[in-house]
Amino acid sequence: MLAYLQMRKRQTVRTGELTGPLQLTREQERELFRRMFRGGLIARVRPGLYLVPAQLPLGGSWSPDEVLALNTLMEDRGGSYQICGPNALNRYGFDEQMPTRVYAYNNRISGERTIGAVALTLIKVADERLGATEKVRTAEGLTAVYASRVRTLLDAVYDWSRFNSLPRAYGWIRKELAVKRVGASELVTTALRYGDKGTLRRIGALLEFEGVEEKLLRKLEGALMPSTGLIPWIPTNPKRGTINRRWGVVLNEKA
Known about the structure:
The protein is an alpha+beta fold. It has three domains: about 60 residues, Arc Repressor Mutant, subunit A, CATH 1.10.10; about 70 residues, no CATH class; about 80 residues. About 40% of the residues lie in helices and about 20% in strands. It contains ten helices and twelve strands. The strands form four sheets. Strands 4-5-7-6 form a four-stranded mixed β-sheet. Strands 1-3-2 form a three-stranded antiparallel β-sheet, with helices on one face. A hairpin with a 2-residue loop joins strand 6 and strand 7. It is elongated and about 75 Å long.
């Protein structure tokens, strides 16, 4: 089986594809897949679809890398994705912790999956919430799609509860603005396209603290409906502190 697929430079195989070439019955093919999967020689992407090693694995077991696993799953479902959250934060140097899972926004699947040794947390979003990405070529010649630097910062405010990223994200944004790796205009544009109302209010308050020019602040302000409701600057802290009326934010920790 492995020799047949490797000669044809294939890394995926589906049930039913080996009965003819290897002269197997359906039952023999099912047993072959079952034994090789249990033996750690191939990885199941979903029932009926498997990844196989490009070369015979040393030590008798094999697992695909993260990008191969994610790309294969998304291609099978005809979906798009972008690696986000802890993985993107680590990639851009905001967080030194190396994630043990791969987090990805996508437009097809929600939930956790395991492919070989690769653990995936898949976050299904609407098509319009995908974007602001950059493509990275891996050493194996694969293309990984990551959230861009500015999108990663925005997501750290937008998806703070999932990524446990506030209030740290405020410091990351301040530093990026200070060293000009990210521009205030770029951040505002990204926030307007991919943020929600709470994100716009927190980003607006932060940029006002940083002395960003008024015309950029008015862009954010113009996307917000008048409201008397207040949101906390730090969502996990008690909602007590000075109130920023312009953005409707309770400064429940030093801003």
